Amino acid sequence: MRLAREFAVLGLAAAACVARGAQQPLLRVVTLSTVLSEVAREVGAGHVSVAGLVHPGVDPHTFNPSPADIRAVADAQVVLASGLSLETYLDRLVAASGSGGDVVAVGDALPAAFAMPGAPGGGETDPHWWHSLDCMVAATDIVRAEFARARPASAADFLANAEGYKARLGKLKAWADAEIGRLPPNRRHLVTSHDAFGYLARDYGFEVHAISGLSTDSEADARHLAGLIDLIRREGIPAVFAEDSANPRLVENLVRETGVRLGATLYADGLGPPGSGAETFDSMYRHNVRAIVGALSAR
Amino acid sequence: MSLHDLLLAPFSYEFMRRGLLSAVLLGVSGGLLGCVLVLRRLALMGDALSHSLLPGVAVAWLLFGTSTSALFFGGLFAGLLTALGSALLSRLTRVKEDAAFGSLFIVFFGLGVALISKLPTRINLADFLFGNVLGVGASDLRLAGAVSAGTAALFAIFYRSILLETFDPVFHRATGGRGGLVHLGFLTLTVLNLVAAMQTMGIVLALGLFLLPAVSAYLWCDRFFSMLLLSVGLAICGSVVGILVSFHAGLASGASIVLCLGAAFLVSVLFSPRYGALRGLRLGPTRPPGA
Asked: What is the ipTM of this complex?
């Protein structure tokens, strides 16, 4: 099915090329992030073929590439990764594939002012940058510049596509500003499974209280969980959130113990699968914002 | 910090009470089963077993999604096939039980990895198979209670058979004991306990509870019954101290309990008056009489 979809995409893109009388074959792009797949398709529309290796609903922190994935990387002219150490396997994957393509860790290329340190104590940078719309705009430009470098002849098209996509991101931001603006500042507490919403929190003045650290791999301890329970009671936080790619057990225990509501499941690590209502960046971001505002504004 | 803050305040949280209760319940059965495992040289069975669960879990995932009970029964089925299969192989062929176990588990592990690479979504199954002692829910607790009570009851009822089969299977059979049946029953019970422990509390703690208290007790006791008691006692103490250490020091809870049990093992292995390393260094190694 996946193959059929890829062929369909390929076919459409090829048809677009023929229609424009372009002679060049499509730029082969491989991404390791569902969000970057969308950005690449939007910016490169008509000129690139995009294969996403990490599928929706798969935990990118612990993704395990298959031989077919390595082959796809070997054939790629451009490899797009989230960066900021999210894909701990990136160097090994690229080395194993012997790929001569350009590897762009988009998160690492973001303007330094956008990068955000992780939880206090850990020196790591939070890799979940796509939850900030400013970062998304910057990432769109990074992808556009990379495509323009690889295919200078199509640079004008890439620019026009990127501007169109950024305009839609701008509309999304206006919507999110208004939506989150309804939430009083003292209600902006985000209790989640793992620390993935730091960027959203920074943009909109939330305080994030995650059960485990920046990766879904890190394990919680009893003192931390007890501290969260005290905080929920003290601040009267009305809801906590589970995530699509993490086991909800610990969140369920928080709910049992404090009697708070369990908000709708958030998409922390990428887009949702087909039919989830979060299969595009726009719908994923709206889903998260609606879930957060809805659950936290309830009395 | 008052004594109350140190020892009692942490248990004002429900998740701490649940976590401790599940560790104590499965520590009791793990302490009992662990003794037989250590004496029968099957100590690495738990480790092997944890790998062999993978294909069962993968198939359960394919058929039923992330339902925890489906994953439990999938894992249980694969674990039983491995354990009972290796017991049968060791009786029907020349291969010894540890080699049969090692061979079967790695085949199962390979099968699991292959299956997972074919799954439509490469999700992190381990995250759903292996629980966390802080995430124990009501259904987990019921499962732990039932498994633990069943294990203790079976040990009480079949104590004589287990004792004979552990120390002198030939004599056991000669006196009309159903040795094979006792052994298969024991393996079934162990698999059930391990899968339940891994699912409720995570793999590190499950393996720790099944091995460390029993090995430590083995270094102090010459009688089977006292070894069982000490092993169970150590498992309970380690769980209480470990979860408190985790609470006050902010350490991952399963690992913290295992480290406390590990400390008890280290002390035993060094200072046991008859079988410890210090005595061994002075007088040369000893072999225990009987147990």
From this structure: 0.77
Tell me the Ramachandran region of residue A153: left when phi exceeds 0, alpha when psi lies from -120 to 50, beta otherwise: alpha
Question: What is the C-alpha separation between A142 and A104, in angstroms, rounded?
Answer: 9
Q: Is A223 on the interface with B (CB under 8 A)?
A: yes
Q: What is the pLDDT of residues A150-204, one digit of tens each?
A: 999 999 999 999 999 999 999 999 999 999 999 998 899 999 887 889 899 999 9
Q: Do A219 and B252 touch (CB under 8 A)?
A: yes
Q: Is B255 on the interface with A (CB under 8 A)?
A: yes
Give the span between the Cα atoms of B153 and B159, in whole angstroms: 10
How far apart (Å, rounded) are the C-alpha atoms in residues B16 and B244? 9
Beta carbon pairs, A and B, within 8 Å: 91
Structural domains present in chain A: 2-171 (3.40.50.1980), 177-297 (3.40.50.1980)
CB within 8 Å: A58 and B121: yes
Could you give all domains of chain B from N- to C-terminal order, each with its CATH number? 3-270 (1.10.3470.10)
- Report how far apart, in Å, the C-alpha atoms of A77 and of each of A94, A138, B5, B162 are: 12, 22, 61, 65
3-state secondary structure of B275: coil
